[in-house]
Hints:
This protein is mainly alpha-helical. It folds into two domains: about 55-150, uronate isomerase, domain 2, chain A (Orthogonal Bundle); about 155-465, Alpha-Beta Barrel (TIM Barrel), CATH 3.20.20.140. It has helices at about 15-30, 45-50, 55-60, 65-75, 95-105, 110-125, 135-145, 155-160, 175-185, 210-220, 225-240, 260-275, 280-300, 315-320, 340-345, 365-375, 390-405, 425-445, 450-465, and strands at about 35, 165, 190, 245-250, 305, 310, 330, 355, 380. Strands 4-5-8-9 form a four-stranded parallel β-sheet, covered by helices on one side.
Amino acid sequence: MTRPLVFHDDRLFPAEERVRGVARELYGLVKDLPIISPHGHTDPSWFATNNPFKDATDLLLAPDHYLYRMLYSQGISLDALKVPSKAGVPATDPREAWRLLAQNFHLFRGTPSWIWLNHVFSKVFGFEVFLGAETSDLYFDTINDALATDAFRPRALFDRFNIETLATTEGPHQSLKHHHAIRESGWGGNVITAYRPDPVIDFEDERFGAAMERFAAVSGEDVHSWRGYLDAHRVRRAAFADAGATSTDHGHPTAATADLSGADSEALFQSLLKGEVTPAKAELFRAQMLTEMAKMSLEDGLVMQIHPGSHRNHNTGLLASHGRDKGADIPVATEYVNALKPLLSKFGNDPRLSIILFTLDETSYSRELAPLAGHYPVLKLGPSWWFHDSPEGMMRFREQVTETAGFYNTVGFNDDTRAFLSIPARHDVARRVDSSFLARLVAEHRMDMVEAAEVVVDLAYNLPKRAYKLDQPKPASASAHAAQ
């Protein structure tokens, strides 16, 4: 039996009528603002080629670890869901893979994925009945028919979603050809990149050797000498800035930083290159490189994003069969006060530096992160992230951070997604939750409506734009390596 898909206009607003009315009014100020998406993992080739998306499974299921990790937890194999493995894309009928999602869609009740997907189904594709076993073929065929039209090509959806800026994330060893193709196409969409150097910093990453070879090739530097290695980062950062980057992105296991001498840094680097890799040495090198990246940000102005605290690829069997980023990353406890002390002692008061901190450890919000960001001029707090990108997680973030750091030591919202069609859904959730939080302050007479109206617009639009320097004029292209 099919049920109507009713996506209520007051979703996520407070249950108490008077506060709900205030939230509704505040949300009305931001619901149609352009989307700033300065941190994400969509594929730039989508916008470079503007080719149609293949089918519902290829677009919405196979690339979305939020979806297939839940299904995998219930015993459904990734191969059955058409998730690529190291052997390639499994020969799974995409309709049958979609049917598995439809039959098991009840698993997502109460999760943010339920909200995001139903937003996509209702607002993007116009469905009026819920996804389930009996509507699986209807969904699959309707979505595929839509994707075959020009209105659902990547650039058309980008414009339809009112995205002002979208950042992808690339490693320093990777080509930026798609970003240059976007610019040369004459299309007006602002798709930029972000510099993610982890693959050539983390000696414990199995990609390190191959990434270093490519890093040497694209930079033209001797990456096996300490000076040449640092110069290679400078060369690639300049190329990324030329391709629109305003930020770097660092996903280390911990927030550890270090302040070694040049001689000690070089000795550590050479020891690791010789294969003398231990967990302690690899950690110390990652820590030193955060400080080196901060030095480079003083030179080129790129904003640093640090998001530690994930035990990557915890499922070793799945890592062996399917590779990285297959839904097996697990949060761990993360310490910031002592970990960041070396970097902050060196640069914490320098107005030229800007660092955005994220966490998967909510216990650090009020104890460490808010007090740090509430004091050091270089620090801002990124939004509730990844596992906590949910209505409850967003509300916990505001409740625990605002009392010490306020609103203006945070950077609004970013969606951090590979699932392109979920971007407007995620931003809509954030705008509704922030409107609800502010409505409570107004109802409790801790803020008046004039202040709340200013804050809600700042959170939705002005703060992310300012934090990621998207409100500044773009420098003239000057990189000799722009074509890499």
